[in-house]
Specification:
With 186 residues, this protein is α+β, with helices and mostly antiparallel strands. The chain has 5 helices and 10 strands, in the order E-E-H-E-H-E-E-E-H-E-H-E-E-E-H. A 4-stranded mixed sheet has the order 3-6-5-4. A 4-stranded mixed sheet has the order 7-10-9-8, with helices on both faces. Strand 4 and strand 5 form a beta hairpin. The protein is globular. The relative contact order is 0.19.
Length: 186
């Protein structure tokens, strides 16, 4: 569970480090290595599964369910330094580049996804990655805002420098930048 402790620090009560490491490596590797980490979309016959252009070309919004909307809004405004784009009684929206991140009060989520139901609030099911220029500098800024890092900064084998943290809704965020040390070794 994420808690805001003394001095505004955010921390996770329990983290399954093996799961986090596995998810981090799988997701980031597939995203960063393009064709190298992707499966061949052709069936065994060698014929392409889809001949036309993909219909989904950009993610315009991500909705994250949160228990404490006020705490989540404060975290995104202060620790992530994002301005509010929209707010109502049940949601707060922030813009990250071309993607809107909608923080939706969990109690209002059922209307959005019915007939599906929300998963129980346990364990991590995803990592959101933000690309930036200097992971170490952003880690310093996050620490000044009271954010506790789950890991990092770390130089990853897939040529990225990363660090991860948890928001008040228990969503894991990763910040990533090219590992400049790896570029020099080439």
């Amino acid at each position: 569970m994420v808690k805001a402790g003394r001095q505004g620090r955010y921390a996770l009560d329990a983290v399954d480090e093996d799961d986090l490491a596995r998810l981090d490596e799988q997701c980031t590797s597939q995203l960063r290595h393009g064709d190298e980490g992707a499966r061949d979309p052709r069936p065994a016959s060698g014929v392409a599964a889809h001949e036309s252009e993909p219909w989904a070309t950009d993610i315009s919004a991500i909705t994250l369910f949160v228990e404490d909307l006020d705490a989540a809004e404060h975290f995104y405004r202060e620790a992530l330094e994002q301005p509010v784009v929209f707010r109502d009684d049940n949601s707060v929206v922030f813009r990250f580049g071309g993607t809107l991140v909608n923080l939706l009060r969990s109690s209002a989520a059922d209307n959005l996804i019915k007939p599906a139901r929300r998963f129980p609030a346990s364990g991590s099911r995803m990592v959101l990655t933000v690309e930036l220029g200097d992971v170490d500098a952003v880690c310093t800024r996050l620490a000044a805002s009271g954010v506790h890092l789950l890991n990092g900064p770390l130089d990853r084998p897939w040529s990225l420098r990363t660090a991860s943290f948890v928001d008040p809704g228990r969503h894991i965020w990763e910040i990533a930048a090219p590992n400049r040390g790896a570029e020099k070794d080439d």
